[in-house]
Design a protein that fits this description.
Two copies of one chain form a homodimer.
Chain A lengths: L2 E5 L3 H5 L1 H6 L3 E5 L5 H10 L1 E2 L4 E2 L4 E4 L4 H5 L4 E4 L6 H11 L5 E4 L4 E3 L5 E3 H9 L1 H4 L3 E6 L4 H5 L4 E7 L2 H11 L4 E6 L2 H18 L1 H8 L10 H22 L9 H11 L3 H10 L4 H8 L6 H18 L9 H12 L16
Parallel strand pairs in A: 1-2, 1-6, 2-5, 6-7, 7-10, 11-12
Antiparallel strand pairs in A: 3-4, 8-9, 10-11
Helix pairs in contact in A: 5-6, 10-12, 10-13, 10-14, 10-16, 11-14, 12-13, 16-17
């Protein structure tokens, strides 16, 4: 049995304590500076206030100030922050990791430089940790369709552990696998991370169909807009495939758990879908951001900002064609320039012909 | 403006009169022997009783006995029956088609011979029509995510017209395209038909997630089973891809409208999902068929029977490996042998490793 330290006490990070402790591992859950109340609650009641369930025995909650103590003796470190905290998490890990540890990240998103070149978030973590130490630990990530609460209550969940070191992937997968938590491994790190990041982008668009019904007063009507949603889903899949191809991942990853699987689950609901629904109903995005969903973390919207801006630069540099990514470009126009929703169907699938 | 004759007055065939008449075409809608009451109702009230909407001006409804009259002067013939009626429809068309007509089929499914060799349904139509006449008309089909009622009320719908004759595809697409009905064309007839047939197969499995919640008394619980559904969706996509590859279609079709797009829309509800939900809740399939859904047309179940039996024969012939299609094989066990649902997650994605 191993000791695992998790940095970040959000719902996904905390849900992962369930399969780990089911297998007898000891877990130290360390809150970030934003998680003080969560850790307080767990320490007082045992219940994670956002998950609404008691964390298993075998989990000990620590405030950030006790992070060193929590990480002492751990063989595995999980970076459990969301995409907004990844640089911060890397800085923390630079002081907490020891050579030989296995690092597992659950953060989904991408980062871009000024020229529009995109990179996956584990690279940001590694950069912050620094080349010396980063080279003495292994880096892996969990991707695939995984609603935290379902993991926490042990509903079947199928995910991929991805990274470059197969031995680490095997060891980590072995630590997590239960009758309900099904784990595959893949060394297509790039393809899997791109799938995980871009599905959030297209999940925002999955909210439009309900919003359009709201706008038309058909919120409870007999005929929905699933045909619309399906067209967006297929175009989103095609754009994801092109992204993976463009950045050098394995095209096959698109049709797997971190591709269409994750796109499916993310389209079923959540904050990004909710934001998209407002836009579908006719609300300018700036109003969604500043009023209706003020203060709500929207990783999908953040991903659209990063990737959409990068796409513009890559087009200027003629790395990609102006006709590519029509859906993503429109989403970026909505987010960045408050453009009204007008789905560019005719530009989908390489243009209507 | 053209004249179009449609054989079959079900909801999908009838919904297609909306884009056609929007473009000024004249449509003759001919009921099958099972549609007598539908045609009666349309003739009396103008309203299609199952769609619940008035069909547009420009549509004339005919009973089957008037089929010859209805087809006289038509340049386009639509085979609008479901997969159970395709042989019958071919026999009818053999007497109704004239050289030079364009035939467009909306039937989704597959046919298999005794050796397990699968073929697409337009081939069944052609066979019934006979080689002489069949060679003097063009054959195309509509595939892609298309809930009939949404087409009828002009909610955005994106489909593919597929066939071997590009000129016919272009002409047909031009006849149907409206601001709401978006049409692409493709000559990957095989790949698109396989996608359209197999999505019904996997839609049955999409019902399991709700059924499992029903069984656990969690029908209204906070935590759903979307992770489960997403894993099934991804595995279904992979099996669809393998089917298309196996039969010689274009792999790319999997990630388009007739692949993941149609799989998405079909997973959102309908009869096959409802049947799957019963199975998910623990009801043996024979009881679903003979009691809960007695008399209900289940095209997905029929497709599982046809394709599942074919897969067994193809495995015996060593055309495919025993490890392939674990999801489809389990669905076939449920349908054909009343096996209880026990999702073979470990066999997904080429086996857990």
């Amino acid at each position: 049995m191993s000791a695992v330290a998790i940095l970040g006490a959000g719902i996904m990070a905390s849900a992962l304590t369930v399969p780990l402790t089911r297998n007898g591992h000891r877990v130290h859950l360390v809150g970030t500076h934003l998680d003080t109340e969560i850790i307080d609650a767990i320490q007082r009641t045992g219940v994670h206030p956002h998950l609404g369930i008691a964390l298993p025995e075998g989990v000990t909650a620590f405030q950030l100030e006790q992070a060193r103590e929590a990480f002492a003796g751990a063989e595995v470190a999980i970076s459990g922050v969301n995409s907004f905290g990844v640089t911060w998490a890397g800085q923390q890990l630079s002081a907490l990791l020891r050579p030989g540890m296995r690092v597992l990240s659950i953060t989904k998103g991408m980062d871009a430089d000024g020229a529009g070149d995109l990179r996956i978030l584990p690279e940001v973590l590694m950069e912050q940790v620094g080349a010396g130490l980063a080279g003495q630990v292994t880096w892996s990530a969990i991707v695939g369709p995984s609603i935290a609460g379902e993991v926490a209550v042990e509903h079947d969940t199928a995910v991929v552990f991805t990274g470059t070191d197969q031995e680490s992937l095997d060891a980590l997968a072995h630590m997590f696998r239960t009758d309900a938590y099904h784990v595959w491994t893949s060394t297509d790190f790039l393809g899997h991370e791109i799938g995980a990041a871009t599905k959030n982008v297209y999940a925002f668009a999955a909210g439009f169909m309900e919003g359009l019904l709201d706008a038309a007063g058909e919120g409870t009507g007999q005929y929905r807009r699933y045909n619309y949603g399906a067209a967006v889903f297929a175009q989103g899949t095609r754009e994801m495939l092109r992204f993976i191809e463009l950045l050098g991942g394995d095209r096959e990853t698109t049709t797997g758990l971190a591709g269409v699987g994750d796109l499916f689950v993310t389209s079923m609901g959540g904050r990004n879908v909710r934001a998209g629904r407002y836009v579908g109903s006719g609300v300018p995005f700036s109003e969604v951001r500043d009023q209706h969903m003020k203060g709500v973390t929207l990783e999908g919207v953040a991903a659209i900002e990063v990737i959409g801006a990068a796409i513009e630069k890559l087009t200027e540099r003629e790395v990609i064609e102006a006709e590519e990514f029509p859906l993503l470009r429109h989403l970026y126009g909505i987010i960045a320039h408050d453009e009204p929703l007008e789905m560019p169907f005719r530009d989908f699938f390489g243009g209507m012909r």
